[in-house]
Amino acid sequence: QVQLQESGPGLVKPSQTLSLACSVSGGSIAANNYYWSWIRQPPGKGPEWIGAIFYSGDTYYSPSLKSRTSISRDTSKNQFTLHLSSVTPEDTALYYCARGFAIQIYTNWGPGTQVTVSS
């Protein structure tokens, strides 16, 4: 059974870079044609796909966030990481990592982590 767990700071100052890690157990992030995604849900709004890294290492980003987003991975730790630069209070959200066979179709989710952008 694959399990995902998000980790990172709960509070980030405006203009800084938000960095979150997703640790995966029960399956390799470098195997089996999976996409490993980041999704967020701002308060009072629906989920928003941020981007994904394919098992091959290829990356895909939401056009609206592409200029500020980078997703990388460390296969030795079985972990992938989100970096979102130049954050504003509008980036405040519950952030999730997830696994799926296609972008924006998910089979496994992490529990989510709250990130607040505030000075």
Top keywords for this entry?
single chain; 119 residues; mainly beta; seven-stranded mixed β-sheet; four-stranded antiparallel β-sheet; 11 strands; globular
Overview of this protein structure:
The chain has strands spanning 3-7, 11-12, 18-25, 35-41, 48-54, 59-61, 69-74, 79-84, 93-100, 108-109, 113-117. The strands form 2 sheets. Strands 2, 4, 5, 6, 9, 10 and 11 form a 7-stranded mixed β-sheet that branches. The chain has a 4-stranded antiparallel β-sheet with strand order 1-3-8-7, with no helix packed on it. 0% of the residues lie in helices and 50% in strands. The mean pLDDT is 96. With 119 residues, it is mostly beta strands. The termini are far apart. It has no helices and 11 strands. The radius of gyration is 13 Å and the shape is globular.
First-to-last CA distance: 39 Å
Radius of gyration: 13 Å
Overall body shape: globular
As a percent range, the share of strand residues is over 45%
User: Uncertain regions: pLDDT < 50 for 5+ in a row?
Assistant: none
Mean pLDDT: 96
* Main structural class: mainly beta
**Helical region count?**
0
Give me the count of strands. 11
